[in-house]
Amino acid sequence: MFDNNVFLENSCVNVTENGEVTGFELQTNITYYRGIPLSMIEYIHVAVDGEQVPDEDITISLEREDWFTLKEAETVTTYKWEYGEPLYIRVKKPGGLTPGEHRVKLTVATRTAYIPVPLEGNKERTVTIA
Amino acid sequence: MSKIKTCVSLYSLQDEYLNHRMTLSDIMHFVADNGCEGVEILPDQMLHGAPDLSDETVAHWHELLKETGLKPVIADIFLNTNLYKNRTLTHRECIDLLVKELQQANRLGMHLVRFVSMVPYWVLEPLLPYCKQYDVAVALEVHAGMAFDIPETNAFIAEMKRLNSPYIGLVIDTGIFCRRMPRVVRAYEIQNGASEGMFDYVDNLFKQGTDLHREMRKNGGKLPDGFVAAMQTKEDELFGPLCDGYENYPYTVLDDLMPYIRHFHFKMFEMTPEGPEYSMDYKGLLQYLHDHDYDGYVSTEYEGNRFTLPGHPVVEKQQVAANLHYVQACLKEIQG
User: Fold this and answer.
1) Mutation for testing the B interface, residue in A2, A5, A80, A83 having most B CBs under 10 Å
2) Is the pLDDT of residue B336 over 90?
3) Checking CA distances to B135, which of A120, A126, B114, B301 falls within 20 to 30 Å?
4) Distance CA A92, CA A82 (A)
5) Is this complex scored with an ipTM above 0.90?
């Protein structure tokens, strides 16, 4: 459900910090029809070319200023992931994605107010890294 | 004498909003331009920071009401009992969250909030003083699949009757009055790998005057054998159980509840080129409401957007406009 909300097109890029490529970033809309606090993200998974990256290597941000690991985000109740605004997801990977094409899959699941199971969305895109 | 008025839940235009084709202002002007009288909003969807809205956001909302002439009717609110991953909120935490929602409704000029289905009955008594303080009534949504056979809904109704306050009521979602399974749902799920036989089975139940939810209830909560036999693909495991979300109650199920009903969601999957909605007989329901002197809004709630076939545009504006024009024509005929 909400697969169409997941993984915004053309959003996957390598991230350079202090002159070094430290990983890659992607953006997604929420897998729900309303905004919720970050603590209500149940899980996020990223896979590259069929291989899932360790969840511990993922950090998320609403504005690219404050970054939280998925574990830390479990206690973030004051910042909301708004409907219609992207969540920025970074994956730590020294050197980033290699130039060329990659299949990148993003899975996002949120807890909802009345549906007993989390709402999961998936999207795999072919990404070209320059 | 009934006083039935039109309203649109802005939920109906969520894809336009999500993908930045329309702003909140665009959406409100659009529904007003189509003759709508009232507006329903999910603050969590289209008002950033809800329920802790900034003064600027609240001022902008009131400007939009003034510009469009729309009446603020109802705010749809939720209770995040699962705010934390490791535990469920305590009762007092739940009440604290709901009080904030009542404050927010008051700031938005709303005198009614909709509780999403399954909000527990025990919030009502502690909330009543706040309802009075902020002059905001609370109403539980009775939604298909979570309606009159569900313990949580019945517990709420019992508590509502016990407390008997003008600040407590119900919102009825017309998905409980489906007379056919929406064909847009069928088409979408078959396109995603579901089996046609499953939907043929459900169509047949509707022809017999029943529905899958009722048949499951009779069958101890399990899918009927004939339905299970029609399930052929792994996608059926996902889509099959979702077929119980379309119920086929007679309007008379509302007879003794009418004094408590504060609002209707006119759920809409597909307005047909011929005029009526494909699955529901709005005209029949409006006549029932007229005959029972309903004084309130009927609110367009489009949900066909999530069943748009790949490669096809999402037609929220067209469907909302068609729905409004159809309901307006019915009301003109029924109410004069």
Assistant:
1) A83
2) no
3) B301
4) 25
5) yes
